[in-house]
Amino acid sequence: MTSEWKRADEAGAVDPVSAKQTLSMLMGIFETARIVPRTSPSRVLPLTIISGFLGAGKTTLVNRLLSEPAGRRIAVLVNDFAAVNIDEELIRFQSGDTIGLTNGCACCSINGDLVNAIQRLVERDDPPDAVVLEASGIADPRGIAQIALANPAMRLDAIITLVDAETIAERLRDERTRATFVSQLTAADMIAVNKIDLVHAPGNEIRDTIESIAPKRVVLETTHGNIPTDVVLGAVNRTASLMACSPADHAVGFSSTAREWKDPVDRDTVLRWLRDLPPYIIRAKGTFAFRNEEAARYVYQRVGRREVLELSPETVIPSSESRVVLIGFSDSWKDADISGPPS
Questions:
Q1: Each residue's pLDDT tens digit, 150-172
Q2: pLDDT digit string (tens) for 9-43?
Q3: Which pick of 75, 97, 259, 307 has the fewest CB atoms within 10 Å?
Q4: DSSP readout, 70-115?
Q5: Residue 343 maps to a domain
Q6: Which CATH number does the domain housing residue 57 bear?
Q7: Same domain, 35 and 61
């Protein structure tokens, strides 16, 4: 048993609702295995799950992604626990596609709504560049991730959990909400403390609380869900740039840069360099051609502590080139820290 699961267990006893959701999640995975094609996909869609308790600001963040897509076609899966999908009505259809799941938590969609929605996106002639799933405020995002990843055409990029800075103490005190709230924190790769402008407590107190429950996560402070699209979704096709949220929104600034190699690179050297990047680099995403594997293409993804290197089914870069984009906190940024590795 990992320390994370120990903390979740200590937060409170498992109630019948959680047990029912777990059973439903497993049934959803079985349904996914039944529906998805058995052949290898021609391309893999990156999935980002936006999690957080009711009122944390998930829909506001999704609206920002749709209004500022950074050149991407974003498909959004909206999930609401109620019979009427209020969140879907709030989403602005400024860009991308939105598919509503109205029959309860996506992680409990026994009838395969989530599975079918994902499959429709995968099979489209013009599939999106990224898929964002806004989870119900009472859902455990682990269940959604397991169902999605049962489809070989999906790749989990990140689970991002939003926290309402005003109500975090209340959520942890209340036995009715604590277990769900803790599960959303411990499932996250990145945690965004939203509405930070509405609290008087120092930000480090909230950070210390989060660290005690979900250690070693990337923690951002923001208002109005103001997080740049490249931070939420990662990037592989943008030139070096400076990204900064509006100071009026009390949000942290971000910087990014790209590294490129014209010839195939040494796998061990590059991976060692990526793993040794300073902790203020919160996102890294790249495509690589490795020496002695010139016919293959690999995709590298890192957000917080999550790191994945996998073979790509499609040709995403020229035959011998490699490229990686790094995103981090502007106030800690030092070019000398990220100058390598040798080609």
A1: 777 788 889 999 999 989 999 99
A2: 334 444 444 555 555 555 555 555 555 555 556 67
A3: 307
A4: TT--EEEEEE-SSSS-HHHHHS--SSSEEEEE-SS-GGG-TTSHHH
A5: no
A6: 3.40.50.300
A7: yes
